[in-house]
Specification:
This protein has about 180 residues and is of the alpha/beta class. Helices cover about 25% and strands about 35% of the residues. Helix 1 packs across helix 2.
């Protein structure tokens, strides 16, 4: 385990089997359709790549980069689009893939934006859900794990751009961000 982690919350094994299970549920729903899978950069990349490989329906891939957080662990309260989609979403069945839903600010805003742009449907798939932290009215359609209010890193998730490549989800030691 990385020295900055307090403990491992979800092992590689646990992540692999649950992501598979959720992806199969999503897959059933899209039989006969070609969804556009929108990954939210950068936190979702590892989850995204594991998730899409379990889908059997034809898919198209695209990415957006948004920020609601600055560099640290506290929300700045403003959604900024740093990279937009390559193509429009008019009439498309969109699946948004996100690493974690915390206050819900990012996904509430993003879902509203995609619907406003004319998406036929917007389904939200998250790896982690901190339900106790919710401030905005949004519930993921599919979520892999409900977690407590702890700051976690790994499997794509970062603190100050670090730790994304850890293969597990670990709880970051408080001493790392409370310096
Ligand atoms: P929300 O807009 O408050 O729902 O925040 C969602 C975003 O906050 C996620 O996409 C993450 O980038 C970030 N975030 C929230 N909690 C954590 C955490 O425990 N570890 C790493 N990033 C987090
Ligand atoms: Mg993120």
């Amino acid at each position: 385990m990385h020295k900055d982690c307090e403990r491992i919350m979800l092992t590689e094994q646990e992540l692999r089997s649950r992501v598979k299970e959720v992806a199969r549920q999503v897959d059933e729903r899209y039989a006969g359709k070609t969804p556009l899978i929108v990954g939210i950069l950068k936190g979702s990349i590892i989850f995204y790549s594991d998730f899409i490989r379990e889908l059997t329906c034809p898919v198209e891939l695209d990415f957006m980069a948004v920020s609601s957080y600055g560099s640290g662990a506290v929300s700045s309260g403003k959604l900024k689009i740093k990279k937009d989609l390559d193509k429009g979403v008019l009439g498309r069945d969109v699946i948004v893939v996100e690493d974690i839903i915390d206050s819900g600010f990012t996904l509430a805003n993003l879902k509203a934006l995609l619907l406003e742009r004319g998406a036929a449907s917007v389904v939200i798939v998250t790896l982690l859900n901190k339900a106790a932290r919710r401030e905005y009215d949004i519930v993921p359609d599919y979520n892999c794990f409900d977690i407590e209010n702890e700051f976690v890193v790994g499997y794509g998730l970062d603190y100050n751009e670090r730790y994304r490549n850890l293969p597990y989800i670990g709880i970051l030691k408080r001493s790392v961000y409370e310096k």
